[in-house]
């Protein structure tokens, strides 16, 4: 069975790693390709995105090569794992907006929450490349 979805994740983020480990255990049919952007051998050239862009929000790649970001990445990931009915609920207007907002807040603060924030001169949080 070939992969139906690829997810790009930060393997050095403890919160992210915990979620990905859980999802990998659920992927018994091996329908998802889990790609760690923090791995030494990762080459993002095929994504058309810089390392910084990939670090800002979670990215996924559909089988046709289309890149997606944010909550839609989680929807596609969970659909590939067989949770389509749950994913359908995440598209309802009130739930959809709450999830989008919650993810934006998380993504903006992910480095700080995981203890990996290095502030630049403007006070922006980043990680060393």
In short:
The protein has 5 helices and 6 strands, in the order βαβαββαααββ.
Helix share of residues? 40-55%
Largest sheet: 4 strands, mixed
Given the helix and strand composition, which structural class is it?
A: alpha+beta
How many helical stretches? 5
Overall description:
With 129 residues, the chain is of the alpha+beta class. The chain has one domain (5-126). Helix content is 43%, strand content 16%. It has helices at 14-26, 51-56, 71-80, 84-89, 93-113, and strands spanning 5-9, 32-36, 59-61, 67-69, 118-119, 125-126.
Q: Secondary structure elements and their pairing?
A:
Blueprint: E1 5-9, H1 14-26, E2 32-36, H2 51-56, E3 59-61, E4 67-69, H3 71-80, H4 84-89, H5 93-113, E5 118-119, E6 125-126
Question: What attributes characterize this protein structure?
Answer:
129 residues, alpha+beta, 4-stranded mixed beta sheet, 5 helices, 16% strand, globular
């Amino acid at each position: 069975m070939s992969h139906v979805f690829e997810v790009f994740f930060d393997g050095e983020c403890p919160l992210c790693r915990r979620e990905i480990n859980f999802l990998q255990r659920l992927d018994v049919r091996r329908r998802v390709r889990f790609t760690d952007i923090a791995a030494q051998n990762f080459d993002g050239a095929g994504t058309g995105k810089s390392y910084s862009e990939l670090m800002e929000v979670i990215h996924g790649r559909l089988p046709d090569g289309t890149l997606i970001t944010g909550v839609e990445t989680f929807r596609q990931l969970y659909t590939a794992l067989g949770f389509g009915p749950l994913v359908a609920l995440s598209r309802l207007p009130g739930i959809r907006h709450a999830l989008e907002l919650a993810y934006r807040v998380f993504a903006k603060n992910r480095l700080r929450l995981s203890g990996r924030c290095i502030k630049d001169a403007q006070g922006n949080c980043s990680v060393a490349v």
